[in-house]
Amino acid sequence: MTADPRPVVLEAAGIRLSALLSEPAGDRPPLATVVALHGGGMTASYFDARARPGLSLLELGATLGFAVLAVDRPGYGRSAARLPEGVSLSRQTRLLRAGLADFAERHPTGAGTFLLAHSYGGKLALSLAAAAGTGDRLLGLDVSGCGHRYAALPGATPGAGPSRRDTLRHWGPLRLYPPGTFRAGRGMTTPMPGREAAGLPRWPRLFARLAPRVRVPVRLTFAEHERWWRHGEPDLADLAGRFTASPRVQVDRQPGAGHNISLGWAARAYHLRALAFLTECLTPAG
Parallel, antiparallel, or unpaired for β 6-12 and 33-37? Predict the structure, then answer.
């Protein structure tokens, strides 16, 4: 058994970031630390789904010996009052690097950190990985629901965030989520900050600059019913081919899942595969 995730605060260059932390039971040191980054219009609670037992990444990761730190990205959670319009991706990167350095000074992190990110959080994960040095002890990253070619740009006009109708439509068929998911999810959804939304159209060009600078193993997952991104075979081949400095790039599909994989019936299967990839990154061959 593991204790429920507890709230923690990261000091990030004058900005306080809220987060949820789960750790292995019995004061065991973690094998490594999973840093979970939520998507646009969500919060850190995205990774603690409780509509059905077994869906929470925070619970599963701690059970398997990892610390899991789910962070409210800059502009969300505690930092929203200081950053009501949010911040650019580049500033999110600087703030989160500072916040993770603060966390590592006060908590055991095991062999290093592993980024597990969803949707817009995947953009931040890739930006963090591109900026990482040896002192960051970054083991790898696992990104779901984030590609490099939009199927439909969120929002009706450039710079506009996704509307509620767009968001619900792009979740995928409701049968992919346990009953009660939408009621339970009210506490984990929030409007996307304006500056974050304004940067959405620039992502394809920014991705082309970031991907060649990622030097750790990368796993990319697309849900069977993903609707935000183009994920045909030519798109995925081009996507994987951009990571020219990564020692390993793996592209997977998650059957029976919509965009928000970590909230659906497929959540446990996806989380187990992501943590298996992390385990491979920990081995000498990985």
Answer: unpaired
This prediction's pTM: 0.93
**Can you state the percent helix, strand and coil of the chain, rounding each to 5?**
40, 20, 40
User: Other C-beta atoms within 10 Å of 199: how many?
Assistant: 19
Distance separating alpha carbons of residues 214 and 135, to the nearest angstrom:
15
184: part of which helix (H) or strand (E)? helix 181-184
Q: Is residue 1 part of a domain?
A: no
Angle at 90 between CA 81 and CA 82, to 5 degrees: 10
> Do residues 67 and 21 make contact, with C-beta atoms less than 8 angstroms apart?
yes
Q: What CATH number corresponds to the domain at position 267?
A: 3.40.50.1820
Both structure tokens of 115: 């980024």
Residue 107 lies in a domain: yes
**Structural domain range at position 96:** 6-282
**Distances from the Cα of 245 to the Cαs of 213, 218, 226, in angstroms?**
6, 11, 27
For residue 150, tell me if it sits in a domain. Answer: yes
Q: Looking at the 3D structure of the chain, how many domains does it have? A: 1
Where in the chain does DSSP place strands (E)? 6-12, 15-22, 33-37, 67-71, 113-118, 138-144, 218-223, 249-254
The model's pLDDT over 194-204, given as tens digits with 9 standing for 90+, comes to 999 999 999 99
Contacts for 12 with CB less than 8 Å, ≥ 6 apart: 74, 79, 95, 96, 98, 99, 102
Mean pLDDT of 145-152: 93
